[in-house]
Amino acid sequence: MKYMATYDLMETARTTNQWLGATAQAIGSYPAVSMVPNPFFRLVAAWGEVTERTFARMVAKPDWNINTVVAGDGRDHIVSVEKVVQRHFGDLIHFQVHGRPPKPRRVLLVAPMSGHYATLLRSTVASLLPDCEVFVTDWHNARDIPVSAGKFDVEDYTLYLVDFMKFLGPETHVIAVCQPAPLTLAATAYLAAEDPDAQPRSLTLIGGPIDPDAAKTDVTDFGRRVTMGQLEQVAIQRVGFKYAGVGRLVYPGLLQLASFMSMNGDRHSRAFSEQVLRAAKGEASDHDKHNRFYDEYLAVMDMTAEFYLSTVERVFKRREIARNVFKVAGRQVDIAAITDVAVKTVEGANDDISAPGQCIAALDLLTALPESKKASHLEPGAGHYGIFAGKSWRNNIRPLVLEFIDANSGTPQPGRAHLRTV
């Protein structure tokens, strides 16, 4: 599998399907075929429209599409995305709300790097912007990073988070969503030992696999069944000639997407069939519910091979975070070093990716943290997506997280004067 030809074969298949969709849409849309008293050509055009859009979105990075936010003065304020720290494998971005005084709540939202772009948290960002200064980790697609930029594994990821936290300063409140929760906890512990003054005020861990063995899911079972050698042979490929990262070993986003969709194949097939019928009837639109969801869901990014493999081996198989034996750059990271950062865990009762029990395990590792600075929340009826972007987040979890932030805030210092240079 570790050949550029394999990667290019997948890209060729994707491009071919995109072309077939565009061709079918064009043929079915000719005025001449409208004279045929049969819905066949209308269905062909609809199938082509949905197919072309589906395969085109797989290689397109979505836009944030957060253009304005209503401030306390009742006016819409323009929002721009600014890169405040730029690195090879990811940037720290700030959602600058123009014309609005800086909010005292400063939030670092740590986005997952698990196959989708940080824009997966678009609704999370939009819900926080009216009340917070929001910063987000914007991870880059590995296929676009030249081999000369070097490696990027779980230790490098952790050190990126350390640098971002140092840059933002101690008045920051960190929210880690899903995959980065264990490494964000490790980054905070690293700071507690190396630079205590740079620690954030609070840390909220949402649906993350702190201890994957605390509750079994299909994800953890897969990690147990497959050996690292098998995983490397089956999942890792070299970026093909089309992209700047040519030759880099990656876990391809298209392979990850196939894995995602196979878990709920019947539901996805039904959703696409229904969308074709809606398009044929003229009931589909560019930004309807189906397209809004799948434009984001289908937009996948490659992960570096070393990050993917080290995540599986060290976080899931060897459970280094859960056993408190994780090392960064040869240094032992002791979770117990966290003594004054308030920590809250959030889980969904119906989460089938990071099941209840996996995230709350973080609190048991914080042996030196007073109980008054620990909190947890289990959201009834919520699945994985719902606890950070769905109705459960908007109606229940977001208010609780903001209350937790306020309860653990120091004296806020408006403005950006305390941002560090890293």
From TrEMBL:
InterPro entries: AB_hydrolase_fold, PHA/PHB_synthase, PHB_depo_C, PHB_depoly_PhaZ. Gene3D superfamilies: alpha/beta hydrolase. Residues 207-408 form the PHB de-polymerase C-terminal domain. NCBIfam families: PHB_depoly_PhaZ (TIGR01849). PANTHER family: BLR0908 PROTEIN, POLY(3-HYDROXYALKANOATE) POLYMERASE SUBUNIT PHAC. This is Poly(3-hydroxybutyrate) depolymerase. It comes from Rhodovulum steppense.
